[in-house]
Amino acid sequence: MDIQFNYTYTAGDLATLYCRIKDLGTKVVVWRRTSQPHPITVGLDIYIPDDRYHVQHIPYRGSWNLMIKNVNVNDAGVYECQISAKERAGSRRLVLLNVLEPPSTTTQKTMSPPDIYITTSSNFVEVGRTITVMCNATSIDFPTGDIDWFIDGHKVRENSRTTITKYSSFVEKVIISKLTITHAQLEDAGTYVCRTSESQITNTKIHVLSARSVNSKRGTDSEEVRREIYEIRMLGLSINRIVQHRIVMCWPCDSLQDRT
């Protein structure tokens, strides 16, 4: 069995099994467990009597993600995402779901006070590259609510270049939001703020560099390197001339030493 993806969650989490299939045409995406013959979902419809299941469909990305609320150890196993037309090559995805038991109350560490912090792959991004910013918020109570994103005071909304992915853990009492902006443009630069519904807030500054500024910086670095190489070569020539001069000056001295 060829497992393409492997996901691990703790019991009580919202588990998301990702599947991306484009150009469906008139076909539909089917989710099922390989250990069971009947489907869990067909398209957006749920075919089992369990309201914990939900299909997250993102049309422009071709995503048909299976989401399971309050996942438990009985949900662990291999899931299959496929197109209803079985004869179509490459239409099958196998996903392994692992579910861990939550730690017992006697072994749980003392919960840290509420906190929020933001991380980014880089604060300096070239035009055309991808901006990725993550916000991690913890809370004494759960759920922690939601996380909103702002750029220079303007609320961020999803579009063809902008996606917001969220993950929450009941055990760790944490919510994580990932903001991704593809094909970065100069106007994407600014102060990125993430704020929870509990008024926790933090920010970071993102700079978008144009190709001209990047090439200019690289050109400056190259000029400095060439200048250093030139100076080293000139220093070497000067040392050679000094050595040759001393040899010429000392040649008669060697002759006098031989006579004595």
UniProtKB/TrEMBL annotation:
InterPro entries: Ig-like_dom (IPR007110), Ig-like_dom_sf (IPR036179), Ig-like_fold (IPR013783), Ig_I-set (IPR013098), Ig_sub (IPR003599), Ig_sub2 (IPR003598), Zig-8 (IPR037448). PANTHER family: DEFECTIVE PROBOSCIS EXTENSION RESPONSE 9, ISOFORM A, DEFECTIVE PROBOSCIS EXTENSION RESPONSE DPR -RELATED. Residues 1-91, 114-210 form the Ig-like domain. It comes from the Eukaryota. GO terms for cellular component: neuron projection membrane. Transmembrane segments: none annotated. GO terms for biological process: synapse organization. This is Roundabout-like protein 1. SUPFAM superfamilies: Immunoglobulin.
